[in-house]
Amino acid sequence: MKARDLKTIYDLIVTEYKMVHLGEGRFLHTFKPKTTNTIYQFEANGTPEMEENARYNIGYRDGKDGQRIIDLSCISKSDSVNPMLSYLYSQEFSKERHNVNKAKNDDRVTHGAKDGYYWGKKYAWREFGLVISKDAFYAYLEQIGHPKVPCTTANPAMAFSNDPSTAYKEEGLAEAMELLITTAEKKTKALYSSPHYNKRFNIRGVDAITDKK
């Protein structure tokens, strides 16, 4: 399971890939995305771990001096994803954290629905949608008209905090995600489309799947 303090970035194009010897067989690997001057880095041996101008989904942590520190276990090429393998892996990932997610959902999400179990939007994504981004998951459910209700979500870090939000009915969520992935067709090097969703979307590679945004 991926560490929960990881952040994720999708379809990053690697440029200016460099390696600097640190001694004792270790090298500092650095690069910049094609569209920004942000520095990404990690320590490894003297073999390049990424390819210049290739596209990747990556997991990283924020460094003390503004760098982004990559977790080598969370690198996957965004143009060579196996959609069904990613989907199945995301299901297993979510299953491992089901008890934690449900406990938080029960404790923090309040709504008035009586026709089944409902998940606050963040927990719905963690349970059923990790194979795609949060934004794509919410937009897809909105488009297909998946049952939802208004809710309030408590913030445990803030006393008396109840934020308005949305909760989605559990029934049908798994089927909706399976339909999206099984009908996905590759349209670009990194983006897919489905007849059930009017926007193109990214499917995460296995190594990039995490329940952080």
How would you explain this protein's 3D organization?
The protein is α+β, with helices and mostly antiparallel strands and 213 residues long. Helices cover 25% and strands 37% of the residues. It contains five helices and twelve strands. The strands form three sheets. Strands 1-2-3-5-4 form a five-stranded mixed barrel. A four-stranded antiparallel sheet has the order 6-8-9-7. A hairpin with a 2-residue loop joins strand 11 and strand 12. The longest helix has 14 residues, at 83-96. The radius of gyration is 19 Å and the shape is globular.
Structural class: alpha+beta
Q: How much strand?
A: 35-45%
Q: Identify the quaternary structure here.
A: single chain
Largest sheet: 5 strands, mixed, barrel
State the strand order across the main sheet: 1-2-3-5-4
**Order of secondary-structure elements:** EEEEEHHEEHHEEHEEE
Radius of gyration: 19 Å
Features of the shown structure:
alpha+beta, five-stranded mixed barrel, 25% helix, globular
List the helices and strands and how they pair.
Elements lengths: L6 E17 L2 E8 L6 E5 L10 E8 L5 E10 L5 H14 L1 H11 E2 L7 E3 H8 L5 H11 L3 E7 L7 E8 L3 H10 L2 E2 L5 E3 L2 E5 L12
Parallel strand pairs: 3-5
Antiparallel strand pairs: 1-2, 1-4, 2-3, 4-5, 6-8, 7-9, 8-9, 10-11, 11-12
